[in-house]
């Protein structure tokens, strides 16, 4: 299907700043290539140049034929959709009914055709955006960080769809991500960027080995780092890992700290429903959170994590039940969209020229650190690790740990089992607004089959959940 797209000597600027420099590579027909890089490395700029949304300053993009077509799915696709539902969006793109039927039947999302986008989970919105792209009959699909905001189930679903579209229909994919985990099962090629320049390019194993030798280890997932550090080739799957003779000793459990902590928030029989919801989004929820701890809220997309944070902050009022707060004026709430906070901060100390060039990950990191460096005693963060590369995620996680150790309360939502196990003392798991688990974060992640880490799957019964546990 299609042909080989070639890029030669490509350069691009943001204002006077060069963000892409002398890039040359090819995307073969029926291939899957991951565009890997840290926040601000130029990934989004490159995708926009390829699809024509941004002008290049030098170089060439050579399409295999005049009929070659590509489609672009941006970050946060809901913000760029003009229709209120998938049917309306398809009509705007000019898709015919039979074409819509064909695409939706393959993706298995016909039931979402008339559902308002506002009622869908992030995973469902991402797949709806992919459906709109497929209605353009593309040879190549460009995806900008499609997995970053998704829970584990949605990530596997989307990765599976990409694999099927590639293997069965021959559609090529060029996927920008800062984290390879979730994409290695596709056996992709990797183009790694470092400050707009190519730092590695090739098949997944060879590219990771090249990055390891160059010291650019932040771009390699922790699980693969473990094997590379022991002199083994990086496994792409757990099946590959099982064939490598690597054995690790069990990790001794850490003794729990004693002493009574002061209650900061008490939730009693809390229930809430959004106006358009047919059922309660939070149902009869009761728990307490304490100063001197970090509490992770986990659950699949649409489980009620963001709703609960809004209720804890006081932005939303319960339908039933009560939220008691020890320090009502000592709460700092950062929702998923960091732009309002950054706009407020910009008005005080940031110049416009400093804010605008930031990537979504750089904005998220800046907002997370602003919240965590505030003087408030209770900090509520909605998906603080979202869109962050590994080094930025570690920096934010360590700041969460520090605030809890100083005696403050940090409550954050996350889809990442490793982030949960590393930086939360306890975890509250929500299942459609109901409490499914409340206890040690390591007990939650270590005792699960699916919401867990590759370390726990590869080394079961050894209390090894993260790379830090292996050191």
General description of the model:
Helix 12 runs parallel beside helix 13 (390-405). The relative contact order is 0.11. The protein has helices spanning 43-51, 86-92, 97-107, 122-134, 152-169, 204-214, 222-229, 238-242, 305-313, 339-348, 352-355, 360-372, 390-405, 417-423, 441-446, 454-458, 467-470, and strands at 5-14, 17-27, 32-37, 58-62, 70-73, 140-144, 172-177, 189-194, 197-203, 263-272, 282-290, 293-298, 320-325, 331-334, 378-382, 409-413, 426-431, 434-440. It has 471 residues and is of the alpha/beta class. The longest helix has 18 residues, at 152-169. Helix 13 (390-405) links the parallel strand 15 (378-382) and strand 16.
Brief digest:
With 471 residues, the protein is α/β, with parallel strands linked by helices. It has helices at 43-51, 86-92, 97-107, 122-134, 152-169, 204-214, 222-229, 238-242, 305-313, 339-348, 352-355, 360-372, 390-405, 417-423, 441-446, 454-458, 467-470; strands at residues 5-14, 17-27, 32-37, 58-62, 70-73, 140-144, 172-177, 189-194, 197-203, 263-272, 282-290, 293-298, 320-325, 331-334, 378-382, 409-413, 426-431, 434-440.
